[in-house]
């Protein structure tokens, strides 16, 4: 019995360990530089406009994350990046105004130890899929990760009639619950949230999720809703893209 119990504890510990990302201390400056770049890329490529944001979990402390202060992504510099704890409080006592919806990030990092980066966007192409009964589905291989399913967050179920914003930890928690173990969730009448195990991958996912929405709408308009999507097995086989590293290098070049 005792052996069984120890076995169970070890198995649980091993499972928990595999879920925790490997941290590389000493690379925080590079991480912040990459986060600035992620802001510029998402702005350049039309995923973020003056609103929306991208964050990355700290490489030194998994209970901290980095996010710009309240400003448009395209204008973010390294000095605008603030380190937050998982209550969305600035760690360094920074008094800059934070994004109202920073709780999206803190509550997802709390709920998902596997997530290292989060994007929240208001991309117009995604909005129709959060407001109709048409599910967002992978229409091409570059967005195969959508095959895992894209839940829709209904804020009324969590907070009644609101101003639609994730203004507190409770709403952030409800959003994280809707996201579950999926790579993305739509937010009805608002936008979407996308997560990944790296900053580069979350940028690629956000970009190709938007492109997928555009293509899916075009296909539905062309053929009255009779569209052939990637089937489950195809989506699973196509999903590991390479973390979109080639795209990252290309988009990086375009920010110069
Ligand atoms: Mn928003």
Task: Give a description of the structure.
The chain is of the alpha+beta class. The chain is 42% helix and 12% strand. It has nine helices and seven strands; from the N terminus they run ααβββαβαβααββααα. The protein has helices at 2-19, 28-44, 103-111, 127-131, 155-159, 169-179, 199-223, 232-238, 245-254, and strands spanning 53-57, 64-68, 81-85, 117-121, 152-153, 184-187, 191-196. A seven-stranded mixed β-sheet has the order 3-2-1-4-7-6-5, sandwiched between helices. β1 and β2 (64-68) form a beta hairpin. It is globular and about 55 Å long. The termini are far apart. Mean pLDDT is 91; it is low at 1-21. The site of manganese (II) ion has 5 residues, from loops. The site of manganese (II) ion (MN) has 5 residues, from loops.
| Estimated helix fraction | 40-55%
Please state roughly what percent of the residues sit in beta strands, choosing from under 5%, 5-15%, 15-25%, 25-35%, 35-45% or over 45%: 5-15%
The chain-level mean pLDDT equals 91
Radius of gyration over C-alpha positions, nearest whole angstrom: 19 Å
The kinds of small molecule bound in this structure are: manganese (II) ion
Low-confidence stretches: 1-21
Number of strands: 7
Number of helices: 9
Q: Biggest sheet: strands, sense, closure?
A: 7 strands, mixed
**Class inferred from helices and paired strands:** alpha+beta
Please give the alpha-carbon distance between the first and last residues. 63 Å
Q: Could you spell the SSE succession in H and E letters?
A: HHEEEHEHEHHEEHHH
Which strand order spans the largest sheet, edge to edge or round the barrel?
3-2-1-4-7-6-5
What is the 3D shape? Answer: globular
């Amino acid at each position: 019995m005792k052996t069984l119990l120890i076995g169970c504890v070890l198995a649980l510990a091993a499972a928990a360990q595999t879920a925790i990302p490997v941290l590389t201390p000493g690379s925080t400056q590079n991480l912040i530089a990459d986060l600035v770049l992620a802001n510029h890329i998402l702005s350049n490529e039309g995923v973020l406009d003056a609103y929306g944001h991208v964050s990355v979990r700290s490489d030194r402390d998994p209970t901290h994350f980095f996010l710009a202060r309240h400003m448009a992504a395209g204008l973010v510099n390294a000095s605008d990046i603030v380190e937050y704890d998982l209550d969305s409080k600035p760690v360094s006592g920074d008094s800059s105004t934070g994004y109202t919806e920073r709780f999206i990030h803190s509550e997802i990092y709390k709920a998902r130890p596997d997530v290292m980066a989060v994007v929240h966007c208001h991309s117009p192409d995604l909005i129709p899929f959060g407001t109709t009964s048409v599910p967002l589905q992978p229409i091409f291989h570059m967005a195969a990760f959508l095959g895992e399913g894209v839940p829709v967050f209904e804020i009324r179920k969590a907070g009644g009639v609101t101003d639609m914003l994730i203004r507190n930890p409770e709403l952030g928690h409800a959003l994280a619950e809707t996201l579950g173990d999926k790579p993305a969730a739509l937010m009805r009448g608002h936008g979407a949230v996308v997560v990944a195990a790296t900053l580069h991958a979350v940028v690629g996912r956000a970009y190709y999720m938007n492109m997928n929405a555009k293509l899916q709408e075009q296909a539905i308009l062309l053929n009255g809703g009779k569209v052939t999507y990637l089937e489950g097995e195809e989506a699973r086989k196509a999903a590991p893209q390479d973390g979109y590293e080639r795209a990252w290098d290309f988009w990086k070049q375009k920010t110069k």
